[in-house]
Amino acid sequence: MIVFDKVNKWFGAYHALVDVTETxxxxxxxxxxGPSGSGKSTLIRTxxxxxxxxxxxxxxxxxxxxxxxxxxxxxxxxxGFVFQQFNLFPHLTALxxxxxxxxxxxxxxxxxxxxxxxxxxxxxxLAHKAGALPTELSGGQQQRVAIARALAMQPRxxxxxxxxxxxxxEMVGEVLAVMQxxxxxxxxxxxxxxxxxxxxxxxxxxxxxxxxxxxxRATPEAFFDNPQHPRARQFLADIRSPFxxxx
Amino acid sequence: xxxxxxxxLLSGTVHDMLAAGLRLSLTLLGVTLPLALLLGVxxxxxxxxxxxxxxxxxWLFVESQRNVPLLAHMLFWYFGAPxxxxxxxxxxxxxxxxxxxxxxxxxxxxxxxFMAEDVRSGIRxxxxxxxEAGRALGLGFLPAMRLVVLxxxxxxxxxxxxxxxxxxxxxxxxxxxxGVAELMYQAAKVEAATFxxxxxxxxxxxxxxxxxxxxxxxxxxxxxxHPPRAL
Amino acid sequence: xxxxxxxxxxxxxxxxxxxxxxxxxxLALTLVLAALGLLLALPAGLLLGLAxxxxxxxxxxxxxxxxxxxxxxxxxxxxxxxxxxxxxITGHKTGQFSTMLIALVLFDGAQLAEIVRAGIQGLPRGQMxxxxxxxxxxLAAMRRVVLxxxxxxxxxxxxxxxxxxIRETSLGYIIGLAEVSFIxxxxxxxxxxxxxxxxxxxxxTYFVLCFGLSRLAFWLERRLARRAAPTPxxxxx
Lengths: 247, 231, 237
Prior knowledge:
The complex is a heterotrimer.
Chain A: E1 2-11, E2 14-24, E3 29-33, H1 40-47, E4 55-60, E5 63-64, H2 72-77, E6 79-82, H3 94-104, H4 110-123, H5 139-151, E7 157-161, H6 169-184, E8 188-192, H7 196-202, E9 205-210, E10 213-218, H8 220-225, H9 230-239
Parallel strand pairs in A: 3-8, 3-9, 6-7, 7-8
Antiparallel strand pairs in A: 1-2, 1-4, 4-5, 9-10
Helix pairs in contact in A: 3-4, 3-5, 4-5, 5-6
Chain B: H1 13-48, H2 52-66, H3 70-80, H4 87-95, H5 98-125, H6 128-136, H7 141-171, H8 183-194, H9 197-225
Chain C: H1 3-16, H2 26-53, H3 57-72, H4 75-90, H5 96-121, H6 125-133, H7 138-168, H8 180-191, H9 195-228
Helix pairs in contact in C: 1-2, 1-8, 2-3, 2-5, 2-7, 2-8, 3-5, 4-5, 5-7, 6-7, 7-9, 8-9
């Protein structure tokens, strides 16, 4: 589904992604974890070209996403992206947020878009807030609307960039529950997250990154119980310190 | 297609007239800028002073300057204000370049008001605890302002003050109205005398742009040398 | 002539110039010129501002150069350029009103371009990113997501720009346009003995107008700030 082929990226002199080569199959739920600055967010943002790459290839469903002449907007409409800061459109209601893109891009008539949006808001538990503005919603609610908004485009892939990092602890669960539901329904997902409990429960595979490289790839059980790479071991030890949050 | 003769700009009467105009414009800028800045600091302090009448006076000054066009100010200071002077003073004034004096006064007061607002924002950007810390050391209000707050405030206020300086430079052109022979006036005179409006105006435009660029470059250099530092 | 006599004779002239026996002048002309100027400058400024932030270099660079040159030139210079060269460009003699209007639209358009640019760039980057991530093309994302928010934030700046435009109309004086400063000077020439009072009245007129409008801008800014930051909500079921 998603293929990284020797992908490299620099921010100026800083080598952010180093020869990344991975394949993510359809229906997989891949969690990317690692210390700050490891390149996890950069990696996920290259998938829908929010970040560019210097060399290598990224193929989605067989198509090289950097080939000249590609319809970038069509590509992005097939990929859902959920941001750490939610990024809901504050001048539109929850429903309007979900309906904007499908209607504008003519994927659905206004009526169809509305119906689908309401169904999705119901699925994330917020049908009763369809008419609310983002400023009237809590962080957890905003993020759930953001997920519904991304799903409204009926994407084949969902990307999550630290979706719960900006939330107060008591709201993290409601968002993770929605993501778990998506995984159970067979969505191909790539999540950058620090929520190790979620990784254990839901992920089919864990990628550990540090300094721009993928250092370890394993099933959640294998990764959490028996990490191979020394830096992965260090990372898990730091996360599990008495003062850390999850795991 | 009319022919353009730019050699006129290089030497001869036209060149001399325009060069003289440019010199006068630069003089206006050079004299007005420090005065306006000083006035701006004083008025900003007045607006933040603990005394209500002082604050009110500062506010009134700023609003009365900012809400009236510079042109109207110049007309007032040239045509209206001298009437208020005693005869002797008025005659002296008219004998000693009243136009330039009126231009200087109106530009200084007008830009003093705008700069006062930028300095005031700069002062307010400095955390209040800085003044408290200064006072806690035993400094009075004015010394604490001068030694602790103002240096930080002025550094923060440099970008908007640079904007105002650019505006001041451009507004020296309005002194034309009251007959000051600065660059604009001279360009118009050249036009009237030789009909070489294109060359004269190109020179004037290029001069304004060049000095604007210079001011912006100086400001950027200063910003790199003295970046505003916050904790 | 006594002072009150002067006021009585000339107040209408001050307000509307020679209208209806001639073209509109005085305070009315100042207001019409400012309103029309800003109204026409708004779409110009919007387009220029969008061009300034667009991803296409062939559009960005010429527009940036244009805005830079216009903003670095005194308005008076722009007025002179318009006055002396519009007739040769358009082929007919351009009236003072049209000349001043065109100069204002050009100059204020460039100023507004910068206000629009700052408004757009002041929004969090995430807004554009999330709109593009949904598959919306750049122009649609601008039109439906970024601009509605940016324009709302810019409203106080726009009212302030109107105040500035009112002040800018005074430059019509120099090309003989009968706006309120010019009329005041004409009255002064006729009456001769009350220059201080006349110019004080001129100043007061501008003051009332501009001060009133800037209070409006201030009130608008406060209302917008209140709307954007309502009390935060706790976690929910």
